[in-house]
Target: L-lactate oxidase
Amino acid sequence: MSQTIGFRSPEQWEQVAKEHLDKGAFEYIQSGAGVEETLQANIEGFRRLKIVPRVLRDVSKVDVSKTILGTSTPVPFALAPVGFQTIIHQEGELAAAKAAAAHQVPFTVSTVSTSSLEEIAEVMGDALRFFQLYWPSDADIALSFVRRAERSGYSAIFVTVDTPMLGWREQDKQNQYFPLRDGQGLGNYLTDPVFNEKAKIISSVREKEVVTEVAARLFNPSLTWENLKWLRTKTNLPIVVKGIVHPADAKLAVDYGMDGIVVSNHGGRQLDGSISSIESLPIIVDAVKGQIEIIFDGGIRRGTDIIKALALGADSVLIGRLYAYGLIDGQEGVETVITQLKAELQTALALTGETELSYLQQIKLIKV
Ligand code: FNR
Model:
């Protein structure tokens, strides 16, 4: 491992990102929708939950490995889909994916990655990767993305369902900032034969027109469970529904034969005022009772946050902004974030009085 960056807390990473990025790019990453009630609740929800640790239990050896969607991984976290990563570092997703692969941490490629899913697969070798689908308004393009992910060694499709349209993001409106408009995040569309055919994109076309064609197809406000039922018949890859906070929806994911859910409010970027991720987790765990894999995201900044999410019944977690800030320093920065989070998690597990993550559900949490 090529780690030479010194220790940085999550708050320091955010500060470094703020100093290095343009206002528009930084606020696009950092901010949430509306008055950021949900963004803050995601973080504060963790701070209100307190671990009641056990002692004198021989914690000289701790094991933080886990199985994520059937594959064993050295840590219980994966990198969340974060689009447009070239706004953070010129190498974008390629740098983050290489960092993830170097530590056997699964990487989730966004539909709006700037490099194509094939290019990212190429730099990852055999390392575990997932593809996140923003279901386009055209089902043929959706299926084309899924086929490409199958061919390029992706192990699951994460369908993001909390984004029928973009949330009400006031900072971005004020900054008049959306990375797609500057030609970022087009990697998967530009290389898609079905999209190119449908949009009649020719190589000489001006970038502005491509952006307009992609923007017109990117989200699908008419998506329903019937679309997921259809996708279920089209692919054998595990399907994970990302963006569930209501227990009834978690139950529907089970009924529709989905393989997992991500309990998530999109990092507070979609419906402001919605329940924090960590508050919705126990309700969902209770509703699905082990029938489906539960991945959690939203507000994970610390090893102790991972302990709390797993203690409440999550099988694994995704980290979003934390590694996005690390990407300021390219591959090395993301590797540093991963290494620090793993080390912090090992310390937290031992100090909780446990040696394995699977025992965490016996640990008591209280809400203050
Ligand atoms: C995201 N997220 C996201 N989700 C998704 O399904 N597809 C995407 O392309 C993106 N893009 C994206 C960009 C940026 C800048 C951020 C911050 C987030 C949401 C992401 O996957 C995840 O749900 C949250 O980031 C989790 O919250 P934390 O860890 O950032 O608090």
Q: What stands out?
A: The first strand starts at residue 49 and ends at 52. The chain has a mean pLDDT of 96. The pocket of FNR is lined by residues 29, 42, 80-83, 110, 112, 132, 160, 242, 264, 266-267, 269, 297-300, 319-321, 324 (CB under 6 Å). The CA atoms of residues 92 and 332 lie 12 Å apart.
